[in-house]
Design brief:
Number of strands: 13
Helix content: 25-40%
CATH class of the largest domain: Alpha Beta
Number of helices: 7
Shape: elongated
CATH topology of the largest domain: Heat Shock Protein 90
CATH architecture of the largest domain: 2-Layer Sandwich
Strand order of the largest sheet: 7-8-10-11-13-12
Radius of gyration: 26 Å
Structural class: alpha+beta
């Protein structure tokens, strides 16, 4: 079965040696099995720059996890792939640890198809959003022109009404274009800055009571554009610095909990932001980061797409899950 399944399979024994690498794995990665078998996994992963494999393997060992699934881009001999990787711990009948098996598949074409579909939806929505304000703008201009040439006695009233409509619709259109520009904008390394996450928290109004090691802080943030925010924070680990563009890490209204930790082995900052809102409907889970998807009447549907773009521009990852007893948790990782 291992030899014939379509998915790639790589097994690692409890001593860290690769014991199996099937033909589908060779096909997907374009690497021969004899370059893998009977060699230390860490050595192989480093040699062929299989960072995603290394991440899953390290996290399963460090956290003693039985399973772990990740998806991400990889470059192998000049080829760019998107790999879906699932790690499982192997055990015998006596529950004795035998090692780890990594099953993976090439999602490149699937992701391409999803991106094409997403951008088709973006194009459709952009056209729709632009067309909506253009209609009242056109009607107002036509009405204004008609009343002007008729020398209408109520021209001043019509002028005021029509120009107000035009100004409001143009403002709405500009807002939509600005939001789309934020989404489409790539990272500008010139605006980057090396910052300490705790220090960045304090610069946004936090009064930290913690120092090194495990600490906690809480604060109230008031009179920010007539909004207020109540937040709690919990930090652990000794912080180094991470690369961020401070102007693009934004704040919003509501009650949130902020949890931060430093993964020393992977050198990554892990930040969780939780709220106590309505949460995520199961049918919406896969659409959260798709441009123009929104359940809000006044939303543009670009907020979370922009968030993911910012995180990926920082070479990070982000995911969403349900908060308990209610609400949502967004967790993102950034390289330190």
């Amino acid at each position: 079965m291992v030899e014939t399944i379509a998915a790639g399979l790589l097994s690692i024994d409890k001593n860290g040696l690769i014991t199996n690498f099937n033909p589908s794995g060779e096909r997907i990665l374009g690497l021969a099995a004899d370059r893998f078998r009977d060699r230390p996994a860490n050595e192989v992963f480093k040699e062929f720059r299989l960072d995603l494999f290394q991440t899953v393997y390290d996290r399963m060992l460090a956290d003693q996890r039985d399973t772990l699934a990740l998806e991400g881009p990889m470059e192998i001999d000049g080829r760019f792939l998107t790999i879906g990787l699932h790690g499982s711990r192997m055990k015998d009948e006596a529950n004795k640890d035998l090692g780890i098996v990594l099953v993976f598949e090439d999602l490149t074409e699937l992701i391409k198809a999803q991106k094409v579909a997403a951008w088709q939806e973006v194009a459709r929505r952009v056209a729709h959003e632009i067309k909506n304000p253009l209609t009242p703008i056109q009607l107002s201009a036509q009405r204004l022109r008609k009343k002007y040439f008729e020398k209408s006695p109520d021209f001043e009233t019509i002028f005021d009404e029509a120009t107000n409509v035009i100004v409001n619709e143009v403002t709405s259109l500009k807002h939509m274009v600005d939001e789309f520009s934020k989404f489409a904008r790539t990272a500008d390394s010139a605006n980057g800055a090396s910052v300490a996450p705790r220090r960045d928290q304090r610069s946004h109004g936090a009064l930290s009571r913690g120092s090194q090691g495990c600490g906690a802080c809480s604060w109230n943030w008031t009179k920010t554009s007539r909004r207020s925010i109540s937040t709690g924070s919990n930090s652990s680990g000794s912080w180094s610095t991470c690369w961020t563009m401070r102007s693009r890490l934004c704040t919003t209204k509501g009650r949130v909990w902020l949890t931060t930790k430093y993964d020393t082995k992977r050198r990554r900052a892990v930040v969780s932001v939780a709220d106590e809102g309505v949460g995520i409907a199961p049918e919406d889970q896969d659409k959260l980061f798709v441009p123009y998807f929104t359940r809000k009447k006044t939303g543009t549907g670009l907020g979370l797409a922009i968030v993911r773009r910012i995180i990926t521009d920082h070479e990070g990852q982000i995911q969403a899950s349900q908060n308990q007893p209610k609400g949502t948790v967004f967790t993102f990782e950034l390289p330190v």
